[in-house]
Amino acid sequence: MSEPSRWNPRTLAAQALGTVDPLTRAVVPPLHVATTFIRDPDNEYRSGYAYGRPDNATVRQTEAVIAALEGANEALVFGSGMAAATSVILAVPPGSRIVASQVMYWAFRRWLMSEGPRFGYTIEFVDTTNLDAVRDALKPATALLYVETPGNPLWPISDIAALAEIAHAAGAMLAIDSTCATPVFTQPLRLGADIVMHSASKYLNGHSDVIAGALATARASELWERINSIRIEHGAILGPFEAWLLQRGLRTLDVRVRAQAASAAILAERLSTHPSVASVLYPGLSSHPGHAVAARQMSGFGAMLSIRLKGGAAAAIATAAKVELWKRATSLGGVESLIEHRGSVEGPPCPTDLLRLSVGLEHPDDLFSDLEDAIRAAHGAAA
Ligand SMILES: *Cc1c(COP(=O)(O)O)cnc(C)c1O
Questions:
Q1: 9-250 and 253-382 share one CATH topology?
Q2: Which of 40, 88, 200, 326 is the most exposed place for a label (fewest CB within 10 A)?
Q3: Is 202 a known active-site residue?
Q4: Would residue 121 show up in a list of annotated catalytic residues for this protein?
Q5: Considering 109, 121, 159, 202, which one is annotated as catalytic?
Q6: How far apart are CA 219 and CA 159, in angstroms?
Q7: How far, in Å, from the CA of 236 to the mean position of ligand 1?
Q8: Helix, strand or coil for residue 47?
Q9: Which residues line ligand 1 (CB under 6 A)?
Q10: Residue nearest to atom 8 of ligand 1 (CA)
Q11: Taking the domains of the chain in order of start, what are their residue ranges?
């Protein structure tokens, strides 16, 4: 793993590693769109670039910034978070056993359940906040432990350092979906994870205008080599324009997520005393079951929270229908705040009285007052 940089992540990201275009001295790295590159007369490719699928300079630049933010040996970007996550699984030898978090991004859990067996994998889902349950699940030879923390949409916190020890003692690799933690608040590789995954469509890009994924690794490994060739040979690459936009988004990552997390904490506090709210799920609240681990492992509690409404599913759906400022939409991690009734998307076991909130950069007072009005209006409509 690379040495911790002398500079803070915020500094590294703000300057996109200080990269300057060598030709023009521009402070913004250029967008390289060429799919093919001239061979030298002796048939060599001394520039290091031959074809756009395996290699693109803009993509490499974005990967270097992500690697720096994660303290990684290397990072790879993909055409989506799903392309990144599925590449990790497909890099594991067919027939392997894989253990994964019970609470995780629903579409990937669904893929693991439906497609995993087709590739010959045995997949077991466990509560990865329960270390004994993980130890038991890893007793049969297991290739990979795949953990999402904080986990969608209940935000359980899994102890990455403890899981790394348990996984490695059992001979398994540990991959962490750190999408909602962001590299600003958690650096899983420094806590012992082998691979960290991001849906870069979320906080890393941050502006709800790019679909992208990223993986980063602590060190070279056979698994990482396989992931690299899957990305190239399955064509799971990110286009240069998306990579360029992502690199631009990364420049403001630190200041964005800190402001968003500060607002999320304010909302969590205020909502937790609201008479129509049954519970607030936010790792920053001392009432949250993962609070102690989060306080140890994260330098901030993130900007995702969920609320459960006393009026049940009807009140939750009606509240989402009544907001004016919050955007009623899926996804998360953008500068605009989003609200979503996850039960309608995921089905069981997602609680039907739950609304997921992705807190953006609006003033927290505005966000609270809009939500409070919507909860009141929904209560009136239901009564
Ligand atoms: C969105 C998301 C994904 C999937 O990423 P896409 O970019 O939509 O393919 C995976 N994990 C988490 C936690 C996510 O929020």
A1: no
A2: 40
A3: yes
A4: no
A5: 202
A6: 21
A7: 15
A8: coil
A9: 80-82, 85, 105, 108, 148, 152, 177, 179-180, 199, 201-202, 211, 213, 332
A10: 81
A11: 9-250, 253-382
Closest atom, ligand 1, to C-alpha of 332? 15
Arithmetic mean of pLDDT, 232-236:
97
The pLDDT, as a whole number, for residue 226 is 98
Q: Which of 39, 53, 110, 328 is catalytic?
A: 53
Kind of pairing between the strands at 97-101 and 144-148: parallel
Distance 81 CA to ligand 1 centre (A): 5
Q: What is the pLDDT of residue 381?
A: 66
The CATH code for residues 9-250 is: 3.40.640.10
Grouping H, G, I as helix, E, B as strand and the rest as coil, residue 216 is strand
CATH of domain 253-382: 3.90.1150.10
Q: Which of 105, 146, 203, 282 is catalytic?
A: 105
Confidence of residue 1 (pLDDT cuts 50, 70, 90): low
**pLDDT single digits (tens) 333-383:** 999 999 999 999 999 999 999 999 999 999 999 999 999 999 999 987 655
Is there a catalytic annotation at residue 322?
no
Cα distances (angstroms) measured from residue 295 to each of 11, 286, 298, 302: 24, 10, 6, 11
Q: Is the pTM of this model over 0.90?
A: yes
Work out the average pLDDT over 298-319: 97
**Burial of residue 36, with CB atoms counted within 10 A of its CB: 0-12 exposed, 13-18 middle, 19 or more buried:** exposed
Q: What's the 220 CA to ligand 1 centre distance in angstroms?
A: 25
Closest CA to 198 of 220, 221, 228, 175: 175
Give me 232's structure tokens.
């190239």
Of how many residues is the chain composed?
A: 383
Residue 248 annotated among the catalytic residues of the structure: no
